C-alpha cells in the first residue's frame, strides 16, 4: 500500500479544525453534571453487564523535567521529588478505590503509562508502582503493556525497571532530529541518546518500539524533515506516529513562546506531510490512518486487516472490547456507555480522594443515538469502510433513513475520489485516509454546534 502521489490541493481543501475522535461524542461534550456518584454507579453497572470482560488500564504520570513548547498534554514541571512521592501515594489510593469495586477475575489485556513523562520516575518508583498494580490485577496470557519514555535523563536502570514489572512496549518522543528545531521547542534531544534508548529496549527484550514525530514545528523545512524521516526509517521501529503540530495558544498559553512566523507555511507543511507518507509507505510501513504507521507484521496492521482495530484515548488500539479504567490527574475512563474524566488540577484531585470520593470532575452518559454514531465513526476510522447492512442489523435501523442528514455530506468526498459508495458499502479510498477525520465529521451530531463556539479543535491535516 504505497502513496505515490499525494494530492496537496485536496489536502489544502480539507485542512480545517475537527475532532480526533478518540471518543464520541468528543470531549467538549463532557459535563460537570456527571460526577463521582455517577462514576461509582457506572462501575457497578459495568460489573453486572460485563463481569468477565477484559480490562484496559491507563495511568497518568503528569511530571516532566522541562516544558516542551509544543506540548498539548496535561503535565507539570517539577524538580521536587516529594511532589512526585505525594502524587504516587494518592494514585495508589485511587487505584485501590476502583480495584475493590471491579469484579474479581476480570483480566488486564492492555496497560499503559502516559504523561507527562513516566520515565521521570526513578527506577525504585517505577518498581513500586508497577508491583503495586501487578499485586492487584490479573493479566491475560499475552497483554500489551506500554509506557511512554523520554530518552533525556533515561538510564539503563530505568529501562530495566520497566521490563521487570512487565512492560513489553515503549513509545518515545523524537519530534525532529534537527538541532535548530529542537532548540526552538525547548527539547534538546541528541540523536545518540535516542539510539541508545532503542538499543537498550531491544537488548532488554521489548517487543515493540514506537517513535513519535511532529510536523509543522518552527524552522522545519521539507529537506530538514526528510533527513529526520530517513533516520527514523534506519532505526526501524515497529510503529511510527507522525502528528500534526496542534498550534493552539488560546488553549495552551505556553505555546505563545513559539512565534507564528517561525512555523512552516501551510504549503510547506503539506509538502512535508506528502513526503512523509510517501517515504514511509515506500519503506514498507502500512498507513493505518490518522497519524499512525506500522510494519505489516505489527499487531496494529494485523488488527486493521482483520477489522478488530479500535480507538480510545490512547489512539488506535488492538484490544477492542476491553473496558478502559483510567487513573491519575486528568485521566479519562471509557466503558459501557460512559466517559469519566478526573480533575486536571492536583489540588482538586487530592481533595476528592481525601474525601473518600472518586476524583471525577466531568463525564458523559451516552444516548442510543450516540452509541450508533460512535459505532459508525469508529468503524470508518479503523476499518476505512462501513457495511450499512451490518449497522442496520446491529441497531435495528434503516441506515439511509437514519443518516438522511449525513449521507449528502459525503458527496463532496465522493466527487473528490476520497470515498466510494458501492451498494451496501461506504469505502474510504487510499487518499481518503488522509482526511478521515473530515469524513467522520459527516456523522457527528454535535459538530455544527461545537464549531460555532470558541476554537477547540486542532486542524485535521
Automatic annotation (TrEMBL):
S-adenosyl-L-methionine 2 binds at residues 70-72, 116-117, 175, 187, 212, 246. SUPFAM superfamilies: Radical SAM enzymes (SSF102114). Pfam families: HemN_C (PF06969), Radical_SAM (PF04055). Its main location: cytoplasm. Binds 1 [4Fe-4S] cluster. The cluster is coordinated with 3 cysteines and an exchangeable S-adenosyl-L-methionine. Signal peptide: none annotated. Keywords: 4Fe-4S, Cytoplasm, Iron, Iron-sulfur, Metal-binding, Oxidoreductase, Porphyrin biosynthesis, S-adenosyl-L-methionine. One of its GO terms (molecular function) is metal ion binding. It catalyses: coproporphyrinogen III + 2 S-adenosyl-L-methionine = protoporphyrinogen IX + 2 5'-deoxyadenosine + 2 L-methionine + 2 CO2. One of its GO terms (biological process) is protoporphyrinogen IX biosynthetic process. Residues 49-283 form the Radical SAM core domain. Its EC number is 1.3.98.3. It comes from the Bacteria. [4Fe-4S] cluster binds at residues 64, 68, 71. It is an enzyme of class 1 (oxidoreductase). It is found in: Cytoplasm. Belongs to the anaerobic coproporphyrinogen-III oxidase family. Involved in the heme biosynthesis. Catalyzes the anaerobic oxidative decarboxylation of propionate groups of rings A and B of coproporphyrinogen III to yield the vinyl groups in protoporphyrinogen IX. This is Coproporphyrinogen-III oxidase. It comes from Candidatus Chryseopegocella kryptomonas.
Amino acid at each position: 500500500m504505497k502513496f505515490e502521489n499525494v494530492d496537496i490541493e485536496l489536502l489544502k481543501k480539507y485542512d480545517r479544525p475537527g475532532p480526533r475522535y478518540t471518543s464520541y461524542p468528543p470531549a467538549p461534550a463532557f459535563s460537570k453534571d456527571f460526577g463521582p456518584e455517577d462514576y461509582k454507579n457506572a462501575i457497578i453497572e459495568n460489573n453486572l453487564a460485563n463481569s468477565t470482560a477484559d480490562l484496559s488500564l491507563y495511568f497518568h504520570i503528569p511530571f516532566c523535567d522541562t516544558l516542551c513548547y509544543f506540548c498539548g498534554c496535561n503535565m507539570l514541571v517539577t524538580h521536587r521529588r516529594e511532589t512526585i512521592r505525594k502524587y504516587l501515594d494518592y494514585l495508589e489510593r485511587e487505584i485501590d478505590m476502583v480495584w475493590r469495586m471491579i469484579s474479581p477475575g476480570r483480566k488486564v489485556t492492555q496497560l499503559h503509562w502516559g504523561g507527562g513523562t513516566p520515565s521521570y520516575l526513578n527506577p525504585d518508583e517505577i518498581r513500586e508502582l508497577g508491583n503495586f498494580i501487578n499485586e492487584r490485577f490479573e493479566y491475560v496470557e499475552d497483554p500489551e503493556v506500554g509506557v511512554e519514555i523520554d530518552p533525556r535523563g533515561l538510564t539503563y536502570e530505568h529501562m530495566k525497571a520497566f521490563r521487570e514489572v512487565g512492560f513489553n512496549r515503549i513509545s518515545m518522543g523524537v519530534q525532529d532530529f534537527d538541532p535548530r528545531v529542537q532548540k526552538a521547542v525547548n527539547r534538546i534531544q541528541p540523536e545518540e541518546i535516542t539510539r541508545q534508548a532503542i538499543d537498550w529496549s531491544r537488548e532488554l527484550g521489548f517487543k515493540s518500539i514506537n517513535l513519535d514525530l511532529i510536523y509543522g514545528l518552527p524552522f522545519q523545512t521539507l529537506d530538514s524533515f526528510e533527513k529526520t524521516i530517513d533516520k527514523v526509517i534506519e532505526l526501524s521501529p515497529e510503529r511510527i506516529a507522525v502528528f500534526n503540530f496542534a498550534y493552539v495558544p488560546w488553549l495552551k498559553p505556553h505555546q505563545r513562546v513559539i512565534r507564528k512566523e517561525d512555523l512552516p507555511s501551510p504549503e510547506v507543511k503539506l509538502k512535508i506531510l506528502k513526503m512523509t507518507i510517501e517515504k514511509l509507505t515506500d519503506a514498507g510501513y502500512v498507513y493505518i490512518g490518522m497519524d499512525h504507521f506500522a510494519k505489516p507484521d505489527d499487531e496494529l496492521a494485523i488488527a486493521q486487516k482483520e477489522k478488530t482495530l479500535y480507538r480510545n484515548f490512547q489512539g488506535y488500539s488492538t484490544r477492542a472490547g476491553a473496558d478502559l479504567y483510567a487513573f491519575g490527574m486528568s485521566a479519562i475512563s471509557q466503558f459501557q456507555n460512559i466517559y469519566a474524566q478526573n480533575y486536571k488540577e492536583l489540588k482538586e484531585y487530592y481533595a476528592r480522594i481525601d474525601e473518600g470520593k472518586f476524583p471525577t470532575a466531568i463525564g458523559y452518559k451516552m444516548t442510543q443515538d450516540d452509541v450508533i454514531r460512535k459505532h459508525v465513526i469508529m468503524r470508518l476510522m479503523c476499518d476505512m469502510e462501513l457495511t450499512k447492512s451490518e449497522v442496520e442489523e446491529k441497531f435495528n435501523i434503516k441506515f439511509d433513513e437514519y443518516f438522511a442528514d449525513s449521507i449528502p455530506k459525503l458527496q463532496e468526498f465522493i466527487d473528490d475520489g476520497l470515498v466510494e459508495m458501492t451498494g451496501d458499502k461506504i469505502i474510504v479510498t487510499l487518499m481518503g485516509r488522509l482526511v478521515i477525520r473530515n469524513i467522520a465529521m459527516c456523522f457527528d451530531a454535535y459538530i455544527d454546534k461545537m464549531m460555532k463556539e470558541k476554537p477547540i479543535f486542532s486542524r485535521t491535516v
